[in-house]
Design brief:
3-stranded parallel sheet; 9 strands; Rossmann fold; alpha/beta
Amino acid sequence: MINRKRCIYKPTKYMGFFAFYNMSLVLVDYCLKNGYVPCFDLSSFVYRCDQNANDPWASFFEPLEIYEDPYKIEGELEFRVSEHPPLVCLSDPSYTPLFCLWNGFPEDKETREHLNKFSGHVKIRQDIKNEAEAYIKEHFSGKIITGAHLRHTDHWTDPIPYLKDQTSYHPFEAYTKVLKEHKSSDHIYIATDAVKNIHKLRFVKELRDKIIYNDFLRATTEAPIHLDKDYYGYDPIRLGREVLIDVIILSRCDYLVGSISNITLTALFWNPSLPFTNIDRSNGGTADTLV
């Protein structure tokens, strides 16, 4: 048994995969700095097979050297994090850029390099990285690739009004306008949670021959796929692995088009030099290109 103060992070049952990933980076870094033991209570984590399944961490990530089961540690509980962002507990301003939906989007390269330092705390499983690398080798070699993340279902009914305005409700035409400008791109890699976004893009004359994507699980209705396992009948472990592969691939593109989300954010700090157009700014007709 370990007699140390511990911090327990329990993601909510509504949390998307990369919201969980980014909160995990914060928790591990905070614990390393302050001598605490990071613990993960994943009993409500949506990306697990069932409530009786083993800890799903190993399905996505390499073992943490300092990871401990929260129920096998003796000693004082420092705090329990059950909501995000956990800034109520983690007041260090160096973490603030990770909470992009609450604190603005960290688009500059310096901030992205700062966030990149945290990413070493949680390592993706090698077999997941190998699958992404195989796709990149097959489709990217010698080509110019624009990546596009089209967020759709997960904030249609968000209780925070400004999230509706800044994420799901941006016009589809804003994406097509920006993507049409990427005339030099050989391919446009699409990462999206909704199958209809791919169908719509394939009907755009200037884009149809450039669109590429993986054959991944996607929502066929307006219901968020990661929150409606019974309707879609999906394997949540597969869903988590696929979104990891999507983000690895997005981070390896030559250019990224996206909106405010943890998926876009993570692709940007995994590759701090990746040029980026924030599509949310294009709602007013002035999409900004950021390098």
